[in-house]
Amino acid sequence: MAKRISEFLQRAYVILCLAFIFCPILTLIVFSFNVDRFPSLPWRGFTLSWYTALLEDSTIADAFKNTLVVGASVAIVSTFLGFTGAYLDFRWNFFWKRLYLAVVVLPPTLPFLILGLALLLFLSRMGLGSSLIAVFISHVVICTPFALAITRMRLAEMDQGLEEAAWNLGASEWRSAIEVILPFTAPAILASALITMAVSFDEFMIAWFVSGLDQTLPVKILVLLQGQVSPRINAIGTIVFTISFTLVAIAQIIILLTRRGAT
Amino acid sequence: MTDAAIELCNVTKSFGGTAAVAGISLRVEEKDFVAFIGPSGCGKTTTLRLIAGLEAPTSGDILCRGRRINDDRPWERNLPLVWQNFALFPFLSVEQNVEFGLRMKGVGKAARRKSVRQWLERVGIAELANRSIAELSGGQKQRVALARSLVTEPSILLLDEPLGSLDAHLRILMQSELKALQRALGITFVYVTHNQSEAFAMANKVIIMKDGKVQQIGTPQEVYRAPQNRFVAEFVGTNNLLTGTISAVGDGIVTISTGVGDFLAPVGQRQCLPGDVMTLVVSADIVTLGAEDAMATNRVVGHIRAEEFIGSVITLFLELADGSVFRVQKQQHEIARLQAQFGSRLSAHWDSESTYLLPK
């Protein structure tokens, strides 16, 4: 009996924690549909007008487009770099491998405020500061470690002998990478693409530092907030949250499914 | 002399400072079924990997039909390997796994399909063509691995303890199937195992290795009845090794004095002088058991310390006067007739003609 109560309390505690974290987001979503301009109760009525208002503002549409373009490009490049890094770790041993890997996965551990400033200074020196290219480069730097970690985790589940078996059956190193490594890691590659896109999509701090006139959506949201309080921001926030959440959720499902089915 | 299917010329392989293979030279002839056996770490798997090209020798030459293949990459040698853990591709079906080698060679889809079906039937799993690997049992996976290696019709097949993951009775079944397959196909098998009985059941030539060196090469009968050195005598079969000094030399027979008695032994081709230290090898299965007081030449007395069952054969462990263990192998019904118990004292005697001497 005591065990049942304890289990119930533990579950309740976890649910309360999650509720605490998600409440602000929930509020955001709920009030995006409220007729009232200010997020207050009582509820005045349901409307989609704030969402349609977004379509009329071309700067928001531009910011959204920028975020998508950057996100997609970052996903492709980071996934590729992450995959090659993971394969390097899997296949070869070289003297400074540990050090190399430690440095490669460093970026997400650094405070983005500092990283943003540093990247702005560095990229400006190279003539790339204050542009979408700068955002793209910066995001690749912080997203590649995610892709590397996800792919490496999947590769660790692979029997080392599979590559040798492919060589033994007539596949050269390149051929066996395509015929064996790629199919096996395909779920991880897909998950990496989705997560890196989500990370880039959501990322505010570094984009704030290095983007110029072409802003990404998170940056645009801050600009809007500073200008005026409007439920249009709630609408944007809801859309951004839904996209990020969906991307990450799909990626997680892929990872979970393939982990259980790994042979 | 015609070219051997595989020839190793003074091959060594070192990892870091240790030599896994320390200079071996041997020939595998066409249509041989050769088995490498030896204790763990003796270098037999490394040797196989050297032949397959998965490791490069530190020195020495590897020849395939007279041609030096040291510089051929693994995918350039047509020496398929059947792996102990099968190494089947989990993301491909059975049919796709088996056709892999043909696909790498560029064989067309129709021709591939035909070959794959033929070989799946040959190894007895035609109905599993479209199954995924995860659904197969150990024995089925083993057959898929076999079909996958044979589909490119190689003339030499390498096998690394392929039956290691199977349960006992399936192993025995697969042994006779492999032997029959090798005979029917007329190809060369190079087989690595740590299981002696497996090697002896299937191979026509056995290569015993220890510490990266070849200890003896011969037919199973030769190796079993005439080990050339102490290690082989200890490793193969169940032999009792009695070390002693030659005390008398006669006409083809010598007397050797050991800690547990003096015994007669045939001298064979050896030159023995009184005072030489030699080892008398008495195989456990040529020994006759009798009551403690039975009289015979070549006799030791001891009490039963332990026994071991392997099917209908029992191995009795007798503790002799000096504390050493003497093993006797007999059929179960013969032992039963003695009505012996643990601790009973028995005598064991043998015919000197069935024993032989080894230099220390």
Keywords:
heterodimer; A: 263 residues; mainly alpha; MetI-like fold; 11 helices; 78% helix; 0% strand; globular; B: 360 residues; alpha+beta; Rossmann fold; OB fold (Dihydrolipoamide Acetyltransferase, E2P); 2 domains; 6-stranded mixed beta sheet; 5-stranded antiparallel beta sheet; 10 helices; 20 strands; elongated
Total helices of chain B: the number is 10
Large-scale geometry of chain B: elongated
Number of contiguous helices of chain A: 11
Give me the CATH superfamily of chain A.
MetI-like
The overall average pLDDT of chain A, rounded, is: 88
Largest sheet of chain A: none
- Cα gyration radius of chain B (Å): 25 Å
Please describe the topology of this protein.
The complex is a heterodimer of chains A (263) and B (360).
Chain A: H1 2-31, H2 49-56, H3 58-91, H4 97-104, H5 112-125, H6 132-156, H7 161-168, H8 173-202, H9 205-210, H10 217-227, H11 231-260
Helix pairs in contact in A: 1-11, 2-11, 3-6, 3-8, 3-10, 6-8, 7-8, 8-11
Chain B: E1 6-15, E2 18-28, E3 33-37, H1 44-52, E4 59-64, E5 67-68, E6 81-82, H2 94-98, H3 100-105, H4 109-122, H5 138-150, E7 156-160, H6 168-185, E8 188-192, H7 196-202, E9 205-210, E10 213-218, H8 220-225, H9 230-235, E11 239-249, E12 253-258, E13 261-266, E14 277-283, E15 288-291, E16 299-310, E17 313-320, E18 325-331, H10 332-338, E19 345-349, E20 356-359
Helix pairs in contact in B: 4-5
Q: Could you write a compact summary of the structure shown?
A:
The complex is a heterodimer of chains A (263) and B (360). Chain A has helices spanning 2-31, 49-56, 58-91, 97-104, 112-125, 132-156, 161-168, 173-202, 205-210, 217-227, 231-260.
